[in-house]
Amino acid sequence: MNRYERLACELRSRIEEGYYQAGERLPSVRDLVEAHRVSISTVQHAYQLLESGGLIEARPRSGHFVRPRRERPPPPSIGRAMQRPVEVSQWDQVREGTCLLPNSKTFYLGRGMPDIDAPTLRPLLRALSRHARRQSLVTLNYDSLQGQRSLREQIARLALGAESHLHPDDLVITTGCHEAISIAMRAVGEPGAIIAVDSPSFYGSLQAIRSYGMKVMEIPTDPSRGISLDALELALEQWPIRAIQVTPSCNNPLGYGMPLEHRRALYALAQRFDVMIIEDDVYGDLEYAFPRQPTIKSLDTDGRVLLCGSFSKALAPGLRIGWIAPGRHFERAMHMKYVGTGSTATHAQLALADFIEEGHYDPHLRRMRAQYLRNRDAMLDAVAAHFPASTYATRPQGGFLLWLECAPELDSIALNQRLTEQKVRIAPGPMFSAVGKHRNCLRINYATFDPQVEAAVARVGAEVARMLEEAGQAPLAQLAEDAGAAEAAR
Amino acid sequence: MNRYERLACELRSRIEEGYYQAGERLPSVRDLVEAHRVSISTVQHAYQLLESGGLIEARPRSGHFVRPRRERPPPPSIGRAMQRPVEVSQWDQVREGTCLLPNSKTFYLGRGMPDIDAPTLRPLLRALSRHARRQSLVTLNYDSLQGQRSLREQIARLALGAESHLHPDDLVITTGCHEAISIAMRAVGEPGAIIAVDSPSFYGSLQAIRSYGMKVMEIPTDPSRGISLDALELALEQWPIRAIQVTPSCNNPLGYGMPLEHRRALYALAQRFDVMIIEDDVYGDLEYAFPRQPTIKSLDTDGRVLLCGSFSKALAPGLRIGWIAPGRHFERAMHMKYVGTGSTATHAQLALADFIEEGHYDPHLRRMRAQYLRNRDAMLDAVAAHFPASTYATRPQGGFLLWLECAPELDSIALNQRLTEQKVRIAPGPMFSAVGKHRNCLRINYATFDPQVEAAVARVGAEVARMLEEAGQAPLAQLAEDAGAAEAAR
């Protein structure tokens, strides 16, 4: 954070704490130069930042004034239905987002990265170090295909928190949730098979469907409840769908938690049409409410749910430790696991099993849930402050990802390109669709939230405003003025 | 090792050192009881073990005598040709061999496990511990899809030893060689594509072909030179083969090193028929001769070779770190890597890069090559001593795997079942074929060789002899007598 960002941050805090009230005049540039011992241009830049964020306004010859507080952006509504199963065509955006070497000067606001800086993670690093120091041969040896029993026992125990009664032998350890999803897809279908997905949907699952030559049927999804059961039923009646892939808890990217009765109805529908359910629970333990909601797997009486999870979001993605409870497709899943990676790295499994057994997992989760909830609200405020009033935002019930829907004229891929020069990257909406839908949407990450993150959000919001202005939308200033009216007109 | 095995081992050493010469009488049971302070039955069991191994013989009322030294078993000859591409039907044996939880009381003589007990591996454990202690965020973070640059640089440097000129950007880090092979298969072909393989062939590759719905064309293979080029050419003329998958260095399971001119001719053939080559080099650095032979990749002028490697055999399989140099299929390989596992575990990559950069890799290799060569000869002697004279054995030029071809009546799957009770497991031949060929063959591992291993080999050899006897072959004693004659008759 440079000087003017630090100063802007300080002023923003004062405004948010009510020290400066709406309509009140802020200190003059000269006063701030003297009080903070900074240059005139630093103060001017700080005021510009706050102004572009819509928090203050400059009145000619009068100085800077606090603007009335903006409402948080309203949630988006459900998308339109798709007509038929399609092949997944998007890859370039995903490749760009996941394959580029991280550049320390660029702010990756779009990534699915948790905060890995918490002190509650230290016992995990200690366990990793301890297992290496022990010079145990087990660390270096092939693991069995199914994975370390001690870790599977811990995962089965944790699953009880989501009311899933799993036996350690029901589980296969995988190289992250990616491999779990990949195994699940191949266990349920062959090339040409149709998978129904919520939309927007995690791009990793879509890419798995693409790579196995399957087709995808995108089902409209309610941003606060999940996949539309009516639309799904219609699709199940019309097409020979093999499986339904959903992320009911802390949905990525929409953040909703699917209500329990909705889960029950989804499972009943799957039974009626005899299709499988691939349940991505990778963010599940990060639900803000405690205890967390039961998984769909917990309702499973006939083994049709393949539950996929991992420690990548709740702990640390670099470990690459996930799991799958493949239900009735256990044998096929074992074959896919064998073919894909042979076995999972032993060292990280042992360290993780220790970390959980020693009781470090729950305190870490408690800390992260509280942090992510706090950050969610801060991020919603930041979006309210820095984005055009035409923006909609989700209300995540867990995890650390926010989905923004901008005015229809916005092209989020073009936005990302323009942001490159400003050293910020977002995740553009079309990544989350098989056919480039959600072009006016984007995903941002609030795992950490500090003035640097807010400055990055401000840059994105300003760029969105500029692009909409260029596209013939009302200019930023006017939009900000009309925020209340726009709200009412929706 | 129990008492009688220990005593047998001691006596065997004395015979091998020439202390007791061929035809000489060994000490009486009573003498040994007194000298070693053991029970009569211990001595009797020790003598029975040596007898079943063909090293000594009991003469009624005269005592035990050293038998003439047996010749090492001759190498097997080339197999018969296959008529057409087939689907891979074997999985049960592979599943059993790789999925069962290791049982510490059972001797896994068939596994592809290196010796991970060498002191030269300790710096690797120290590097793992150091990176965890550093509490570096990098350890816990997602890696980029392509893998750590520092490790790719080291791999590119090591590849020069096999005359491969690779740039770090040509490489993608994978979760073991398993993932590399899996990526390679899917990069070159879609369901229904035909892959030509050497035969016998690594079961992991066959299972990958199976799981992707491809077909396999098994090409007869010379146990000392590799895949038959004549047979391969015929197959290429007759079938639309997509790629040739071979393991030219330290072949698994045959152990040969494909001569350089053979590699050149294979590459020329691939060019002529415009097919890809998937080169499995996972054992390549363990060639006994130094410098090792150039890879086929080193001859590659048009990017048609997909080179797959890993540290699983040269260092430690539990790390699950491999790589692929996918040549012209780089982009497809990146997509398959993304879909399969997203990225590779960061911690082990960092530790490995340090280990190699600090100069620990070459000394470890030197040590292991010498050990494996020593063990190869000891294992050949043990097979000569304990297996029926009708047995053929390969002459591995690297690695730590021996391939035995028994009399045609032997069923190695039934053998493995009978060995379960005796707490030994071998890798039965049909695992290495798409359609259950090589039924009278088995693979055993000599990464470590000590009296316990020899006792396990003795149990396998005795069981083979028993089974052949039951199948109507000449009894064990007679076989041993006729060893010389049988040899001449081959």
Automatic annotation (TrEMBL), chains A, B:
InterPro entries: Aminotransferase_I/II_large, HTH_trans_reg/aminotransferase, PyrdxlP-dep_Trfase, PyrdxlP-dep_Trfase_major, PyrdxlP-dep_Trfase_small, Tscrpt_reg_HTH_GntR, WH-like_DNA-bd_sf, WH_DNA-bd_sf. Residues 1-69 form the HTH gntR-type domain. SMART domains: HTH_GNTR. PROSITE patterns: HTH_GNTR. Keywords: DNA-binding, Pyridoxal phosphate, Transcription, Transcription regulation. Residues 64-86 are annotated as: Disordered. GO terms for molecular function: DNA binding; DNA-binding transcription factor activity; pyridoxal phosphate binding. Coiled coil: none annotated. In the C-terminal section; belongs to the class-I pyridoxal-phosphate-dependent aminotransferase family. This is GntR family transcriptional regulator. It comes from Halotalea alkalilenta. The lineage of its organism: Bacteria, Pseudomonadati, Pseudomonadota, Gammaproteobacteria, Oceanospirillales.
